[in-house]
Design brief:
Blueprint: E1 2-3, H1 10-19, E2 24-25, H2 27-45, H3 70-81, E3 85-88, H4 91-105, H5 114-125, E4 128-130, E5 133-135, H6 144-154, E6 159-162, E7 165-168, H7 169-175, H8 187-192, H9 196-226, H10 236-242, H11 245-257, H12 276-279, H13 281-302, E8 311-313, E9 318-320, H14 328-356, H15 378-394, H16 416-448, H17 455-465, H18 478-488
Parallel strand pairs: 1-2
Antiparallel strand pairs: 3-5, 4-6, 6-7, 8-9
């Protein structure tokens, strides 16, 4: 796959991150990169003052740096900003960060030498993934701390994941015959002054959420069968009457999944109306789908954006300082993603309760083979409730918070990286809640009669049963939840 800085898609990110697709640079676009670098060097020769190129950073922007100290300025920048803490991002997110940083630099507005971008691509193609601590970014002035840890690797410093091992970056570079780079004027700033930590974590969270949405619809359809739900609630007349495309689509998918089911019931056959957690699946899941569409739109823009400062416009002869590094557009999108995915889990947990609570159905209490002697799925619901409650805490919007930094020069920040990290955690939690619902739904349809299931849900049941067996007696369910959660993602 070739990158140009302008055409990357979320699907491209998925292929590079999860399928290790080889990345190369679009030759025509490299001309703009070279032109941009040439312009920086020309302006440097005039000793014109340019932020971050021959000045200090942040509150120190008014300090002019001598020409002979420009390389040291960039080295000091990376060293001083590499102060991330906490557990590292996953290798998937680290890999996405490298891809997105390379793509942003390819736009030709950052003033770096082509070798910087080429080395980022080398990391991808040799599967050398920087170890990047998760905590420490304010999501404005760019993801400074996380991206500084990425930049260290280009210099032969820091740590990486390589061939299943965490080791010093220099070892991996030397094994792949990659020479550490010395950063020239502007290059350190160009590497760290961007939104790639927010956006990379956001892309991985989005991809997981997108996958879970499709799985959640299938699981919910199976639960409808397990509870002999009323199919009339999914009639297209109802959903076209409201008009939301996503709601209409969810209802359509459920109708298609259940079209030949003998376990669903008609309105008034067993009850007049189902509880909201069954009847309102299209309305709630449709709303969550709306948030996914919004998030995808914003991420698609951001992964092709120039987000460092200053920006180089060689053709116009301008070097302009602005604020494209401010993560607010993605920060708000991440907060919406958190809410949308958390709601999927909220509704799923309520369906789990309806599946296990003997006061709400005619199934064996807690789906147990021997109620009383065995607890069955009782504590599965506890775990789902715990995860849902944790999601509610994580879903608090990060983007409404701001703490000034750099002696109040940077007086409003997005906190978007916190939002993206929490979105990813909510996605992981939700996969476990959905796994619990699937375990309970499969047990319920077995009591009803698997042979009476719809052909689509039955095929899904049979595939899922290869991963988690029936509950014939109490066992340690933790492993089942984890295995099924990984399968759903």
């Amino acid at each position: 796959m070739q990158i140009s800085g302008n055409e990357l898609t979320i699907a491209d990110v998925q292929r590079v991150v999860y399928e290790n697709e080889t990345v190369s640079l679009k030759t025509d676009q490299l001309k703009k990169v070279k032109q941009s670098r040439k312009f920086v060097e020309e302006v440097l020769s005039t000793e014109q003052t340019m932020y971050g190129i021959n000045t200090g950073f942040g509150h120190l922007a008014n300090v002019t740096i001598d020409q002979e100290d420009l390389e040291e300025l960039q080295l000091n920048l990376i060293h001083s900003h590499a102060c991330g803490v906490g557990e590292p991002f996953s290798e998937e997110i680290s890999r996405a960060m490298v891809l997105l940083r390379a793509n942003a630099l390819m736009k030709g507005n950052s003033g770096v030498r082509p070798v910087i971008i080429e080395r980022l691509v080398d990391l991808l193609n040799h599967q050398i993934h920087p170890v990047i601590p998760q905590q420490g970014s304010l999501g404005a002035s760019g993801d400074l701390a996380p991206l500084a840890h990425l930049a260290l690797v280009l210099m032969g410093e820091g740590e990486v994941y390589y061939k299943g091992t965490r080791l010093p970056a220099i070892q991996a570079l030397l094994e792949e015959n990659l020479k550490p780079l010395t950063l020239k004027a502007k290059e350190g700033l160009a590497l760290i002054n961007g939104t790639q930590a927010i956006t990379a974590a956001g892309c991985i969270a989005y991809l997981g959420a997108e996958q879970l949405m499709q799985q959640a619809i299938k699981i919910a359809a199976m639960t409808v069968e397990g509870l002999e739900g009323i199919r009339d609630a999914f009639d297209e007349l109802i959903h076209h009457a409201r008009g939301y495309p996503e709601q209409i689509e969810v209802a359509k998918q459920i109708r298609e999944l259940l079209k030949d089911s003998q376990l669903t019931t008609a309105q008034g056959e067993k009850r007049v109306q189902d509880a909201y957690s069954l009847r309102c699946i299209p309305q709630v899941f449709g709303a969550s789908w709306q948030t996914l569409n919004y998030v995808k739109e914003k991420l698609t823009i951001e992964i092709n954006a120039a987000t460092d400062n200053p920006l180089i416009f060689a053709e116009e002869g301008k070097i302009l300082s602005g604020g494209n590094f401010h993560g607010q557009p993605v920060a708000i999108a991440m907060d919406l993603l958190k809410i949308g995915v958390a709601e999927m889990a909220n509704m799923s947990e309520r369906r789990v309760e309806r599946l296990v609570n003997p006061q709400l159905n005619d199934l064996p209490a807690f789906l147990s083979a021997k109620p009383g002697l065995e607890s069955g799925a009782m504590i599965l619901q506890y775990t789902a409730a715990s995860l849902v409650s944790e999601n509610k805490t994580l879903a608090h919007p990060a983007s409404v918070d701001s703490i000034p930094s750099s002696a109040n020069q940077e007086d409003h920040v997005s906190m978007g990286t916190i939002g993206a990290r929490h979105a990813y955690q909510i996605v992981r939690n939700t996969s476990k809640v959905l796994a619990i619902e699937l375990i309970c739904a499969m047990q319920a349809v077995e009591y009803r009669g698997v042979e009476r299931m719809a052909s689509e849900t039955k095929a899904f049941y049979e595939q899922s049963r290869k991963i988690v067996p029936s509950i014939t007696k109490d066992r340690i369910f933790s492993n089942d939840i984890e295995k099924l959660s990984n399968y759903l993602m």
